[in-house]
Design goal:
Largest sheet: 5 strands, antiparallel
Number of domains: 1
Number of helices: 6
CATH topology: PH-domain like
Strand order of the largest sheet: 1-2-3-4-5
Oligomer: single chain
Structural class: alpha+beta
Number of strands: 8
Strand content: 15-25%
Helix content: 40-55%
Amino acid sequence: MLFWKEDNAMLTFGKRASYRPLLTSILTGLIFSLIIGDILGLTFGIVTFVVVMVLCLLWYVHRLPHIYGYLHMGHDQINYYDMRNFWSRLYLLFWPFAQTTQLTFDQIAAVTLNGDLVSEPEFDTLIPTTARYGWWYSTIQMGKHPMSLKLKLIDGREIAIDLSRDYVYNPVQFKDRVQQFSLKLVH
């Protein structure tokens, strides 16, 4: 599955935010609370639900830039998720369809791609690819092959967007899209 698309001279990297992290946190808290509540009582079940859900939400707030490194390039602007601080990430967890931040090309002073484009991701971990462990593959590869786009703005701010997900899933087409991206910024 590819996480970029091009339509009418627009280019998209990454994945749009969804309610999945919030629902996963609620479901995980619910499962643990039902087990603990059945064993130790209703009060412990409710406390377990709150604690587990908050811990899951905090983990997602920390990992959000890596999960949803979204960038959409139109004809004269770039849209991305602003995830510079804890509160903007928490806001995105609860309202994933919120408006993205927009930049015009005139606001961008420099663009840097951080990562190794020479070596492509390959499967060389100790975990076998089975139905049980297969879902770890992309997460492991994203950690082993970090790829990010850093936009330095005229006002001095720097915006880093994690593109590891696209690179891991299809490195050859990712390289083509990065080249198209850089050509569009130049013109």
